[in-house]
Amino acid sequence: MVPSVAQSLAPLPAPQSDPAVQLGTPETSQNKAGMAKLRKAAQDFEAIMIDSLWGSMKDGSLGSDDDLDDPTSSSMQQLGMQMVSGALAKAGGLGIGKMIVRELQSKA
Fold first, then answer.
1. pTM for the complete prediction?
2. For residues 98 and 92, is the Cβ–Cβ distance under 8 A?
3. Which of 2, 8, 11, 51 lies deepest, with the highest CB count within 10 Å?
């Protein structure tokens, strides 16, 4: 007796899919960690942009002669600007970081 074609073929396994990719599933801890990294990167980017903008404004303004005589003044000013820029970006900044996160989330 010859088996039929349907009997001789083993059933195909069910397709495997990543549960994190399925629609309607709650976020996994890996997705949450990835989103936290994305938000942090966007926030850091915004802080760098703000620092660069403020640096350009400072360079365009006239400084005092005392600033030119003190070699540590420039370093302290740069450090202060970086700290203020980071704090501003962490508090929401100009909204550029949020726009980046929103745009990248829509693409994912």
1. 0.60
2. yes
3. 51
Q: Are 47 and 93 in contact (CB under 8 A)?
A: yes
Residue 46's H or E segment, with its range, is helix 29-60
Among candidate residues 41, 35, 43, the one with its CA nearest the CA of residue 85: 43
Q: Which amino acid makes up residue 94? A: L
Residues near 5 by Cβ (< 8 Å), separated by ≥ 6? none
Give, in order, the Cα–Cα distances in Å from 92 to each of 18, 50, 72, 100.
33, 12, 30, 12
pLDDT in tens, 9-54: 444 445 454 444 444 445 678 888 888 999 999 999 999 999 888 8
Please state, as a whole number, how many other Cβ atoms lie within 10 Å of the Cβ of residue 107.
5
Q: How far apart are CA 96 and CA 106, in angstroms?
A: 16
